[in-house]
Structure formats: structure tokens, C-alpha cells
Amino acid sequence: MAVDPPPPATARRPVRRRVLGLGAALGGALFLPAAAPLTTRDDRAAPPPEPSLTVRKGRTVVLKRTTRLSTLTVEPGGTLAAPAGKALTLTVDGTETGAALTHAETVRISPGTYRGDVVVTVCDPHTVHFKGLVFALRQALFVGARGPDDSRSVTAARSGGRVGTSAADGLTVVSTGEAFNGVYVADAAYLLRDPRIELTGNGRSDFVGYGAALTASGPRGRLVADGARIDCRGVMRTAVVALGGATVVVKNSRLHTANGVLPDEYIPNVNPRYMRTAPWVLGLSGNVRATNLSGKDTTTVYLASTLSSESWGVLSSETSGDAFPFGPMSGDGSSADISGDKCRLAAVNSRITVAGDGYGSYVVDNVTQHFLGCEFDVTAYVGIIRSGALHYGDSTSQAVRRLDAEWNLGLSASDLTDLTPRACALRSHRFGLMWHGPGSVRIDGGTVLRTTETTFLVKGQPARLDVDGSDGARLLPGNGVLLQLMDDDDPCPTHADGWGVAEGVFHEPTPAPQRMPDFDTTVAHPMDAMAEFADMDLTGDVFNGFRGGTGPAHGLNLSLNLTRCRLTGAVSATTVKHRVSTIGISRYRELGVVTNTPSAVVNNGVILTLGPGSHWIPTGTCYLSALRLDRGARVTAPRGRDLEMTVDGRTVRPEPGDSWSGAIVIRVV
């Protein structure tokens, strides 16, 4: 966008006017030697500005060195450029502005007139290679192995604070242009105290931090941000990105991201090279997520902070290009490693919120995530799992110290002692946790998970769930469904490389599922879904509506184990039906919304084990494939009703210490 700020209030010294000739003999390109490169804005004097520069239509002006002006005009069709291998950044009164992304993955200075303290910085970009693409990152502060590097920093974009060798205090960065980074730390240790970063305008890729406020990369990268205030508004304008084995610790901070406006030519896709929107096939919307993590052994921790995003998600971890999350992905072998393998993410005593259809956290590629004493208030999902482990528990001193020691976080004594132990309070206005891949979830301590719809939504995956209520954990499903196992209704892209996602459509299967004779519904298989609950009162239904019979999974059993639990609700195989039979991009919120009709087991066995001290009170007709009762367990009808149980058509009594398998039907009469 063109920027035309008012002239500065203070008068400037007269300067010698430089005459610029744009003769035809120059062939349309003008190379300008400029004033000496700018020193930092912190405490060193800058050279006086040149009076003005106009880049005429059809002309290209190449600046060899950083130039200070009082007025810059770029006419439509004119080009202001840097020499080959360099990057150009415009600032006005200390604010980066004017940059616009091009189809060539670079930025250009937008046409317009810019007045004030105008600085055009020529510096080295930080070049990132990603899956055959090359991104030239520009940033206000670049920190390398030897400390801050002015040759790769736009010092004119640092409008406040002091930058030192190992730390910066009160650093202020404001950007209204596109794809400009705040701070990039590469294979170095650096501390930011009280930074203020405000980025408005689109970024390009949060897989590599192109346009992010804070980015750290490399196995020796360690970035600590204390007291940060970060606001980002724009497509892929992420607040924090950690890559390639780096460690990022954010504490006592507030981060917020908001959606931007997509380019007119953008086509929805889930190809990491070009993806800029949330995958609607997961029931999500939006075009920016607050944070992202990828690369082997990368670690991020958020301590006593508030993190929010308008939509899509807050705490994301990413997949490698070779582990494409919507099926096999073709590649040219040149992509950077963004695998999340062995990555770790944690938040302690932090608040995580999403206003639109987004998630609190996303776990993939064996990432481990711990949330201790956190508050979640989200619209779509508390978390989404596609290979990895999630844990929600209390922020006890012991738990936080163990996390600090095992992850080598280097938390200070005050960091640890200032924390007040808390339980997790998880609130979702739709679903709780959703599996669209394998993975495990553990809930313990005093965690309370409250949802408007289903608590645990398992879409055809070998989910692992462990809930320990011995310290007061509770599950409160608003629609009365504790756990729903069903087929994956993700319509997937129409092309294997992630394109065609907008054309994907889910169609409700119409034929009745056919029994697969080679699949045993009476025993638990390694690739079945398994849920264990201990020491808690549960109210709600547990359903297995998986169809099976087609695809790689002929069947999928649900194994449910209760220890010292009281469960009031149905546990049954079901036939599921979506609220609408055809779901495309415009009705993405219908994904995962189904009704259940209890029905005989087909390829969806339900194996229920009532362990010591457990009591099940069925509230309706239930169909099981196996039932095991400990000697200290019992099954009874609701008060004032009777219970009937048949196995393969024979009436039996559910006596403690016994077990049955086959076509089990339990009726409340």
C-alpha cells in the first residue's frame, strides 16, 4: 500500500541537492551511490538525508548502498531495486513499510510517496531454502554465532531499545509491509527483554518463519523472550517460529495473531510450499496461527504467558514434506527438513485462546506436548493429534522442575518459585480432542475438560487415551458423548501433492457395511483404539461407529477399560450418520457432527473391561463384542429399571468375575 505520512515536525538542516539524471543512455536503470551505511539507531548519529528520489514509470533505480531521504516517490511501473544478492527494505520514521510480496517469492517497494525520515536499507538477506523454493528473509535484528549482525539486519527498523552482544532491552519493531521479520536468531543464544513487535501485512510461510515476529533456528539456537508484547495481523504473520533443533523460551509475555487478506490468486491447498490457509478438511478456518515448531529436536516452552489467535491455531507443530498429513506427497528431494520428529512443546500457567474455528495445539510427527496449569478457551478443538503425545496436568513445583531438568530449559530460580501451582482448565465450544492420526493423550491432576460437543473424537485411528481422575480430573461433554469413534470424514485433496483441497467433498456412504470375516471383533489388536479411565465418575456415552470393510483398515475395535470408575451412559457399537450427507468447503463445520444409532457389531467391536471397583450403569440398549467383569465390578440398571443381557441370543446374568464374547446385547427395560 502507498504510505503518505505527514512531514516531520522538526526542521531539517539544509543539505546539498544531488542531481539525479535519468537519461535515455542509462537504458532505464540508474545505479546510485548512496551515503555511508547507517549505524544503529540506538546511540549513533545518522548521516543527513538526501532531499528526495523519484523512480519514474518504466525505470529501474538500483541503490548500491543504504540511502536516507526526506521523500521517496515510486511511480506505478517504476522499480526500486538492490544489487544482485542484496535485499532492499524501506522504513519511514522507523517503521518498515511499502514491501509487497511478488509471485517470484521476493518483495518489491510498492508505488507511492513516502515522506519523513525515509531510509532505504541495502543489506544481505538471510537466505532460506525450503522444498525447492528460496526465500530471502529481511529482519530488523539478525543474530548469528558472533552476535548481532548488522550486515543482515535492517537497523533503521529498530525504532526503540538497545541492542547488545548477547541481549536486547526494550527492542521495538513496527512493520506495515509484507514478509518482514522482527528478530531472527540462527545457531546463537540471545535474550530479548521487554521487546515490542507489531507486524501488519501478510507473511509468506510459517514453515520457515518468513514474515514472523520471532524466529530461532539451528541446534545451537537458543532464544529467550521475557516480557514480550507481540501483535501480528496478516496471512502467515506468525508470532513465534522455532526450527531445526533450536530452543525457544517465552515467558511473562503476550502474543496475538489475527487474519489477513489472502491474495486474489490464492488457491486453497495443503502443500507446505504454498499453503497459507487452515485445512478446512479438519474443520478449521483462518490464515494465521500464532506459533509453529518443526525440525528434529526443536523445543519451545511458554511460561506464564497469554497466547491467542483469531483462528486456525495457537500452538502448532509441523510435518515434514515426506510425511504429508493428507496422504503421500511427491517431492523433488531438495526440501529442507521440517520434520517434527522428537520435538517438544510445553506451556506452563499460560492462557491459550482461539476466537474462530481453530485449535489450541496440534501435534504431529512424534512431537511431545505438555500443558501444566494452563487455561484453554477455544472454538473448535483443544487439541488435534496426528502422531505424537499430549499431556494435560497440574503445574506442581515437582512437575515444572522435572520439565526444566529433562528439557534443559535453564529456567531461573525466580521462574520456578514465582509459579503458583494450578490445574488445567480446558474449554472448547465444539470438540475436545480430535485424532486424525495415531497418538496418545494423558489427562491427570485436577484437569477439567468441558466441551459443547463430543469430548474425544477419534476419526478411524489407533488412538490411545489415558485419563486419571485420582486428583480430581473431570470430563464434561455438553452433548453427552464422551468418546466417538468413527470413520475419517476428511475428504482430502483431489491431488496427491496437496492441490485441489477446495474441490474435496465428503459423501455419506450409503451401502450398509459388510462384515469382514478375517477381522476379530472380540479381541484387542495393536492398531485398535484404546481408552482407559481410572478413579473418576463419568457421565456420557461411548460409541464405536466405525464402518470398516474398505480401505487399509478392515475393522477397528474400541477397547474401553475402567478402574475404580462409575460410568453412567451407553457403551455400544453404532451406525453413524452425518447431519448432512454431502460436505464441501462451505459446510466444513459439519465434519465430525454425527448421530448414533446403537446397532449390532459389524467391523466395530466394543471390548469393555470393568476393573476393580468399577460400576457401569447403562442408560440404553448397548451392543458389545466382549465384556469382562472383575470380581469387584458390577453392571446395574438405572434406578427403577431392569437389565437384560444376551450373548449370541442366550440370556445371561452379568455376574462379577465373569467374561463373555460374541454378540452381546444389553437392554434397559
Write structural notes for this entry.
- The protein has 669 residues and is mostly beta strands.
- The chain has 2 helices and 57 strands.
- The strands form 5 sheets. The protein has a 46-stranded mixed beta sheet that branches. A 4-stranded parallel beta sheet has the order 44-47-52-54, with no helix packed on it. A 3-stranded parallel beta sheet has the order 1-3-5, with no helix packed on it.
- β6 (87-92) and β7 (95-96) form a beta hairpin.
- The termini are far apart.
Annotate the secondary structure layout.
Elements: E1 29-32, E2 50-55, E3 60-63, E4 67-74, E5 79-81, E6 87-92, E7 95-96, E8 99-101, E9 107-109, E10 112-123, E11 126-130, E12 133-144, E13 147-148, E14 158-163, E15 167-175, E16 180-186, E17 189-193, E18 196-200, E19 214-217, E20 222-226, E21 229-233, E22 240-243, E23 247-251, E24 254-258, E25 289-293, E26 299-303, E27 306-309, E28 312-317, E29 344-348, E30 351-354, E31 358-372, E32 375-378, E33 381-393, H1 397-407, H2 413-417, E34 425-428, E35 431-435, E36 439-443, E37 448-451, E38 456-459, E39 463-468, E40 474-477, E41 481-486, E42 506-507, E43 529-534, E44 537-539, E45 541-544, E46 558-563, E47 566-568, E48 571-578, E49 582-583, E50 594-598, E51 606-610, E52 615-617, E53 622-629, E54 634-635, E55 643-647, E56 650-652, E57 659-668
Parallel strand pairs: 1-3, 2-4, 3-5, 7-15, 12-16, 15-17, 15-18, 16-19, 17-20, 18-21, 19-22, 20-23, 21-24, 22-25, 23-26, 24-27, 25-28, 26-29, 27-30, 28-31, 29-31, 30-32, 31-33, 32-34, 33-35, 33-36, 34-37, 35-38, 36-39, 37-40, 38-41, 39-43, 41-45, 43-46, 44-47, 45-48, 46-51, 47-52, 51-53, 52-54
Antiparallel strand pairs: 4-10, 6-7, 6-10, 8-9, 11-12, 12-13, 14-15, 42-49, 48-50, 53-57, 55-56, 55-57
